[in-house]
Amino acid sequence: MTLGKLTRPPKGLRDNLRRFRGNSYSDRLTPPPELMQLVGSITADKYHAVGTEFVRYFTEYGLSPDASVLDIGCGSGRIAIALTEFLSPGANYQGFDIVPSAIEWCQREISSRYNNFEFYVADVRNRFYNPNGPVTGSQYRFPHDDSTFDFVFLTSVFTHLLPADLENYLAEIARVLKPGGRCLATFFLANDESLEHLATGRSDIAFDYSFDHHRVMNPEVPEFAVCYDEPYVTKLLANNGLSVLGPVRYGSWCGRKQFTSYQDFIVMERQ
Ligand SMILES: C[S@@+](CC[C@H](N)C(=O)[O-])C[C@H]1O[C@@H](n2cnc3c(N)ncnc32)[C@H](O)[C@@H]1O
User: Fold this and answer.
1) Which residues pair with 96 in a beta bridge?
2) Smallest Cα–Cα separation from 128: which of 223, 266, 203?
3) 74: CA distance to ligand 1 center in Å?
4) What's the pLDDT tens digit per position in 173-192?
5) CA 124 to ligand 1: nearest atom
């Protein structure tokens, strides 16, 4: 399926796109500044704009209003808040994160208003976000049965995970997705184009420390920002029975002039 090349989306997809306009940002639930900053947003408008942007991508890739959805690394609910305006009361949304204060806010403010939105803490270690977590991302088993979800997403999460954690999370995603279910995940991908931009200083981020399959910005706290070799990611997806849907959607982070979003993103489908 090459949705990126379609000029006229099929009818079901047109209905989904029509359905999502998004409320005015001033009408949306908004977390306190420290919980917006946790996910990299300085202002409420920018915070909500990212939610609206990604829900539109999800609908382009077939997210249905009645879907069962898993939001991995949901932070303070930036995408969940936008999804409350798209998903129907019959849908099921599950979000987890490793920062308890963010999850407490989501439970108090979002689940109390939308009881089909559930949030839970996963006490997983990450030197940047949760340095004392007792479980590594490479060991963590998602608390969901096999083949539970129609749609899984990770926005700006694999950009903070090291390879052993990425590998386990991809295996877990393949396990909990239904056959034919889809996952949208953002990355910083190293390929010929982004490496040239990095080498000539056009990138927003300098990934100066290289390892076998990834690069980091800060070797003391590597999870601050992680860039993966694109062929390594592609191979991991194939090894987990996840096929890439349409073209990879490259982002502006490295200074490229033609882009879809800020980070790169890949949409995959469980075979
Ligand atoms: C830049 S924020 C993005 C949050 C959210 N996805 C969004 O787009 O608003 C990165 C998030 O990843 C979470 N995170 C980091 N490591 C994680 C892990 N191993 N499992 C789940 N979440 C993780 C962090 O706690 C943080 O909330």
Assistant:
1) 72, 120
2) 223
3) 6
4) 999 999 999 999 999 999 99
5) 19
Tokens 């910005």 correspond to what residue? Answer: 217
Does the C-beta of 165 come closer than 6 Å to ligand 1? yes
How confident is the model over 148-177, as pLDDT tens digits? Answer: 999 999 999 999 999 999 999 999 999 999
> Ligand 1 pocket check: which of 97, 223, 263 to mutate, most ligand atoms within 8 Å of Cβ?
97
C-alpha torsion sign, points 253, 254, 256, 257? positive
3 state DSSP class of 36: helix
Distance of CA 36 from the midpoint of ligand 1 (Å): 12
Amino acid at 178: K
Residues contacting 260, CB < 8 A, separation 6+? 57, 249, 250, 251
What is the architecture of the domain spanning 3-188+230-270?
A: 3-Layer(aba) Sandwich (3.40)
State the distance between the two ends of the chain, measured CA to CA, in whole angstroms: 13
Centre of ligand 1 to C-alpha 260, Å, is 21
Residues near 139 by Cβ (< 8 Å), separated by ≥ 6?
168
Cα(73) to centroid(ligand 1), Å: 4
Tokens of 236: 């991991």
Query: For residue 1, what pLDDT band results from cuts at 50, 70 and 90?
Result: very low
- Here the tokens at position 119 are 């949030």
Tell me how far the alpha carbon of residue 156 lies from the centroid of ligand 1, in angstroms: 7
Give the CA distances from residue 200 to residues 188, 189, 224, 236, in Å, rounded to whole numbers and listed in that order: 17, 16, 22, 29
Predicted TM-score (pTM) of this structure? 0.93
Matching residue, tokens 């060991």: 139
Banded model confidence at residue 2, pLDDT cuts 50, 70, 90: very low
